[in-house]
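protien #1 (seq + structre)
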Amino acid sequence: MIFAKIISKYLFYLSALLCVPLGLSTFYQLFPSSHPQPSCTFAFFLTLLISLTLALALRVIGRKAAHQLYRRESILIVVLIWIITSILSALPFSLSGTLKPLDAYFEAMSGLTTTGSTMLCPKAFDPNTGLEVPIRLTNPHVPEKTYIYYGTVDPIRDPDTGLILHSGIEAVSKSLLLWRSLLQWVGGMGIVVIFLTVLPALGVGGKFLYQLESTGPVKDEISPRVRETGSRLWKLYSALTLLEVALLVWTNPQMSFFDALCTSLSTISTGGFSVRNDSIASYNSAATEGIVIAFMILGSINFSLYFHMLKFKFFRIYVPDFFLFLSTAALGCLAVSCFLIPEFGVAKAFREGAFQALSFQTTTGFFSANYDRWPFAPQMFMLILMFIGGMSGSTAGGIKTSRFYIAYKILLHRLELIFRPDSIRKLYIGKNEIDDKNALTVLSFFCIIALFTIIGTFSLVLDGVDPETSIGLIACFLNNVGMAFRAAGPTESMAFLSPFSKILATFWMLLGRLEFFVVLLLFLPSFWKNR
């Protein structure tokens, strides 16, 4: 069976990745004085054992499978890999007792899809009795709606005084925090693209898998061989990550190597998981924010452009998609910042406004300020930026600037046909021709994302989430941003969601990461027919 054979090989490499947090957890267990957080060594060891056992079992099942992978099998295996990886990746959170199974699956899916939303929430306690009490959260714009829920993370207390030393995300095992960031890093480049670098036997099917995983309507292959393409992407991705780690440590002596590593893994992948409760704001460093901004932008640019620049083919970067992305990012920063000047002054307004605008458009999800207290206008701009996203062929989510450019060209063409019905004109984005098939796909994408935005928002409202929070949440999940507004604002988590909303959120995140079509194909009856 071809599915068993491919997934078994993939699981061996996932098992190798699990050794990284397992090693860190073992180290902290041997030297607990520097790590008061709970140990997760057993949880990671058991997860590794399950992953290896499953890989061996699938290898036996698929040992006689053919090498050829066809289009339908490629589509199915992409979705299977994401679902299986999310289940296995959730096990350390669940087995360690950090999160309940559904919350753990949400956390893993949020990481792999580079969404960055979290279920990690500090528990609340009565100051008089010391007993845990429910958290009450009210949207000030909808005062009649109060969310009542319990936190998910126990605090770390001083054994002598009982005072809380760490709470929330900072009370979680560092091995789990590293695992979260690694999930985003792997998901950013795309699990399928990464495992193609070590599975050379997929042939033509492998090329189709790469095309399915690469986000955006225009696929610009770096080299004709898929394995070589994936290998080059891997090397560049790793180099950019290490460069950011070095810059963060060099410019901010207060930032530990662990913090710099996890931040870099989450930045270049445009994921947004942080090891601090207050995200990037906790460092209070303009240099740190500047470096994070730079690498959020780098992660949102089509990676093929970097290879053209490394070969000194600078003329290849002169594509409309690139300049449209930079222009939109600049205008977004300017618009958001200008609305904040009356309240914060020029310097602070541009520092915080630019960071948040770029964090939203690149779909990273870091925050340097509580933007939920800002005026409505900049919040609306940031909501729009969430849907725009980065360039195709990048780690960013959103609709992608190339689709907006194609839609703009189609609109101009249709308007011209009104007074010149006999004119024939081809559509181009740079030097790539956009035929009718691709144009229809782009327009279909806009229709699908509008439809699922409406369905998702309405579903959350029916489940008891207020409308302001609902629209922000759905935009967050579909575009893989990680940040929303009101009850899901920057200082809150997703722990207030009901089980139904959590399940909906995980499916919406997967839809957004695989850009709808790959997942929706599985719901077509004709997909499962032989002909």
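ok now protien #2
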Amino acid sequence: MNIYLLLSLIFSSIGCLFAITRQFQMFQQNSYYPSRYFKWLETSFNGGFLLSAILYFAVSVLYHFKLYIPQCIVSFVLLCYFLKTAIKLQKTSVKGLVFTDRIKRLYLAAALVLVLLIAVYAFLPKGVIGRIAVVICLLLAYITPVFTFALWGITLPIEKRISQYYIDDAKKILATRPDLTVIGVTGSYGKTTTKFILTRILSEKFNVVCTPHSFNTPMGIVKTIRTMLKPQTEIFVCEMGAKEVGNIKEDCDIASPHYGIITSVGPQHLETFKSIENVFSTKFELADAVRENGGITFVNGDSKEIINRIDGEYKIYGTDKKFDFCGEKLSYGRNGSEFTIKLGTKKVKFTTRLLGLHSIIDTIGAIALAYTLGVEIPDIQYAVASLKPTEHRLEMKPFTNGSLLIDDAYNSNPEGCLEAVRVLGSFDGMQKVIVTPGLVELGDKEYECNYALGKEAALNCDKIILVGTNRSKPMADAVRDSDFDTQNLYIAANFKEAMDIYSSFADSNTAVLFENDLPDNYLY
């Protein structure tokens, strides 16, 4: 056994663990769906892959000619390079790698594979198997996408067993709480906002727990049940997300909801859903589960994809007087919004700091369910008046050079984005700026929806900063097709460049809208 070759393998293996960080980051951002991860790989092919091939060729040549000392030195230099690159990526990424238990298990599996290959060489240094182990060990640092997929396959049975254990435990907890009322909230858009609004209103009368942040996957629901539900909890508000048919049913099988709110049906995740009909049937898996439990489902009648498909068994809310709960006299501006709803025999006025028609409709749905569950009208009014915008959802805050930021970075639906631009347009007397990379996961409607966003921006904004050289093309086309001064249109390669552009003209009389802050796997 050659000590320098052994050191080279060790350096290469440690370098591999750093090199694979980017792949794990993108795999995580694509929800561990191989198909979505592969789509990112298709759009991210660049000089880095060619460089990896050249580096592997160089190391292989040194190994072939038994130049073990130079190979050892090169492997150490590459380890340092992979380390530096991994640190830089995590610092500059919009959303870095989150070291969840699953990611830790993937790293552990990678380390075990690499240690096994080194051990094979150590015990069989002169045999064919030992030489094969050396070649594979050296290669893995340069084919990290292949290694990532292999690790996913290796750990998948373990992940399924772990997930099932936690799911069964969560179901046992709920089985001991027949007194607990469970409310499911789903929709293509607006579900997170509606969840938090509903939780705030219900908390005026009940002890309420909701899934935190944007937790809306089976394991997010399970974690909430296992760690946040207390004996005194009376209502559990559970956000339910979906990317494929059957996902909401999977959530409902865990949570078993008694009431439901379906906020919208629209062209979200069409790359996995394939059609609006599939989106509708998936979202209404919540209604099926609620019906089995003898409960009521509230639906947003302003969502055309919903109102055109449902019958009379639902409670409908929105802005049409024919609906069970109708918002009227809507107005909004710098200080927030005002609207009126008929509750029982009374017309009740509400005020809120939330902005945008879609936020008001979400609020109407939450009010409808809270009123049905017995929360008193004055308590509802107080709760609505005290609402704060959900983080990154039309959230107003001070910004660069004294300007005003309207942070709508988590909004990623076509209608919501258009409404956010209209809200920006209502800030009379101020310079209005939008910074956006556009919308994703809309299938064959992606160009159409981004073109519409560009048209709305041209109508309402003084300056437009688009992010992503290729991604911004539909919006740029729309702006150029509009009566807009293209000298005020900027296209940035990334968000840092966009901020440099914005900072050059921002002042205390500027309002800027951040619309849909996409993670790195979409910026190209």
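The first strand starts at residue 181 and ends at 186.
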